[in-house]
Specification:
Layout: E1 22-27, E2 30-35, E3 42-44, E4 47-49, E5 51-54, E6 59-62, E7 65-68
Antiparallel strand pairs: 1-2, 2-5, 3-4, 3-6, 6-7
């Protein structure tokens, strides 16, 4: 079987979030968030991250916007 990749863009209309602030990737049933914004950063559960696997109820912050990751 071949891997299928489908890009989905999440548009966040807020001045504190850059056009390509972070990337969220699903692989084999797991999700990982990767920071793409060197200056502003991406945070998971109050900790600045480069890349991190997500678990249910993790809180992702990008700029001044927070998301709750639910599985």
């Amino acid at each position: 079987a071949s891997d299928v990749y489908k890009r989905q863009d999440l548009i966040i209309n807020h001045e504190s979030v850059g056009a390509e602030h972070f990337e969220l990737v699903a692989t084999e049933g797991q999700y990982k968030v990767t920071n793409l914004a060197l200056l502003q950063g991406t945070w998971v559960n109050e900790k600045r991250i480069r890349s991190q696997k997500l678990v249910n109820k993790d809180i992702i912050r990008s700029g001044c916007v927070e998301f709750v990751f639910l599985t």
